[in-house]
Design brief:
- The chain is an alpha/beta fold.
- The protein folds into 2 domains: 56 residues; 202 residues, Rossmann fold, CATH 3.40.50.150.
- Helix content is 46%, strand content 17%.
- The chain is built from 11 helices and 7 strands.
- The chain is globular, with a radius of gyration of 19 Å.
- The chain starts with 8 loop residues before the first helix and ends with a strand.
- 41% of the residues are buried.
Length: 274
Amino acid sequence: MKGPGGHDERASDAAAGIAESVLKSSTRKHLAGSLAERLARQELSKGRSPREAVKQVKGRLHQLVLSFEPGPRAIADLSSKLAAAGHDRALIKEAALSGLELHSSTRERLPYMEEFFGFIFGGRGFSSVLDLACGLNPLAFPWMGLPEDAVYDAADVSDLCGSAIRSFFDGWGIDGSFIRADLAEGLPGGGHDVALMMKALPTLERIEKGLGFGCVRDADAGHVAVSFPTASLGGRRKGMETFYGEGFEEYARASGWSYEKMAFSSELVFLVRK
């Protein structure tokens, strides 16, 4: 029997059970249940047994999210540092910088961070930001050159970094928010000057083909900054800049978007005007 979403109800029940089992672990409980359920449905549709599907979902969650994140203890320590800093901006910046070093995506960006954000934000008059699949990127706010009264809304499929981001927003006095959001279930709205998708598109495409490009298309923002890694976590380049760059430019041209791009030592970024 088909349910209202078009999924077989038995398969949906099985996927929900697999997701519940996978997310019981303290190392995965902070992830959105809808993501685990989606992956479970995909694995079951390949003819895998529930036991095999559990193993595959655990592995995919590690590849898609957990391999990039710091551990819960490191995030708890960061949250404590930010809370202890109160509203002292020097201490907040120090804590934020230590936080950016924790997440692989933001750590790789540190050597060129100010130039990177200068390309995205410099002289463009943006005053509202939607940071999708944000990780710890919101902690880079002091280096972004945004106005003091900028609105900064952040979303991630993992809630692990949420407490640290909220403490940072509160201490710095940012009109900001953080929500746990599975982008496959829909994008946050509200209308923003620019949406950020920092190294997120390839990962979203691995969750479901078309998801990453669909997020660029559907983001409720006049501009979207999309970046791609040009080296693996191990430092190998493997032609990633050409592969990701040419693929994105082809899609942007087909969509009728104008864009600017800039390459950095380990990252390629496009600023798209829709």
